[in-house]
Amino acid sequence: MASKAKKDMSFMEHLEELRWVLVRSTLAVIIMAIVVYFFEDFVFDTLIFGPTDPNFITYRLFCEASHYVGFAESICITELNFVIQNTVMEGQVNVFIWICITAGFILAFPYILLQFWNFIAPALYEKERKNVKVFIFVSSLLFFIGVLFGYFVIVPMTLNFLATFSISDVVKNEFNLESYISMIKTSVIVSGLFFELPVIIYFLTKLGIVTAGFLRKYRKYAIVIVLIIAAIVTPPDVVSQVTVAIPMLLVFEASVIIAALVEKRKKA
Predict the structure, then answer these.
(1) What is the pLDDT of residues 107-123, one digit of tens each?
(2) How far is CA 196 from CA 53, 139, 145, 253, in A?
(3) Cα-atom radius of gyration of the chain, to the nearest Å?
(4) Distance of alpha carbon 108 from alpha carbon 25, whole angstroms
(5) CA–CA dist 59, 221 (Å, integer)
(6) Contact (Cβ atoms closer than 8 angstroms) between residue 233 and residue 158
(7) Are 33 and 104 in contact (CB under 8 A)?
(8) How many CB atoms lie within 10 A of CB 67?
(9) How many angstroms separate the CA atoms of 82 and 160, rounded?
């Protein structure tokens, strides 16, 4: 009865419902941001500035892997020659607030998904509404994997490249704090959302907007785009570029398979 009542809601009532979805989601982010506040030392010293340490786990793993592929010490990182400085009076305050909000959004992501699922659920079939747990679990898992990929792969590779790139010995790398934080936030959030591609493709295929044939047709363009992104965010060595490119290509291929399965079920 409740779902039927929602289906009969007017446009303005739907907007009101959406407003409360956004309010509840925002409150969840704020609550998680407050939780993050109590772990500020760990968040900043260990997580945020962890990739600035040459002993960061990613650098060590890449160094060990380089020995297995015959690169010897060529991609081992022993020093990151740069400093991070704050040049704005309120800069550290702004960074502190935005990191808490960003971390709050990441932690609250499953709850936000649940809120939006409840909003669109009345438009779905009864069988589809029963898959809410699967949807929340899979979507959250993909998002968190993407966040981890962005933090442990894209961020260190990008930082290493930018820290070692130099047009002249005269120029010294002194990165602005807000610029550094922006790089981390963008890498982590964009990577997390990119890993949601299979879920997005699933719904677009269900709506008939995207087909498996369309994705296969433009696969070569997707590969080129991924390789370009990998080349931009990584140092100019094959190992780093392949490490970034392969997971992104696998996500795209998973989306193609999901689109094909959805079409097959629709035909059946």
Answers:
(1) 999 999 999 888 877 76
(2) 30, 6, 10, 13
(3) 22
(4) 8
(5) 31
(6) yes
(7) yes
(8) 12
(9) 10
User: What pLDDT, in 10s, does the model give residues 17-58?
Assistant: 888 889 999 999 999 999 999 999 999 999 999 999 888 988
The Cα 48–Cα 180 span in angstroms is: 9
Range list of H helices, the chain: 2-7, 11-37, 40-41, 57-68, 91-120, 126-129, 132-149, 155-164, 177-194, 197-206, 212-217, 219-233, 238-267
CB 156 within 8 A of CB 164: no
Cβ–Cβ under 8 Å, residues 237 and 74 = yes
CB 110 within 8 A of CB 136: yes
How far is CA 166 from each of CA 49, 160, 171, 230, rounded to the nearest angstrom?
22, 12, 7, 20
Are 122 and 3 in contact, with CB atoms under 8 Å apart?
yes
Please state the three-class secondary structure of 123-150 as a single string. Answer: HCCHHHHCCHHHHHHHHHHHHHHHHHHH
Extract the tokens encoding 239. Answer: 């190992």
Q: How far is CA 246 from the centre of its chain?
A: 16
Domain ranges of the chain: 2-195, 196-268
CB count in 10 Å sphere of residue 95: 20
C-beta separation of 250 from 264 below 8 A? no
CA separation for the pair 168, 5 (Å, rounded): 68
Question: Average pLDDT over the chain, rounded to whole?
Answer: 84
Between CA 190 and CA 105 the distance in angstroms is 13
**Any bridge partners for residue 174, and if so which?**
83
Measured in degrees and rounded to the nearest 5, phi and psi for residue 157 equal: -65, -40
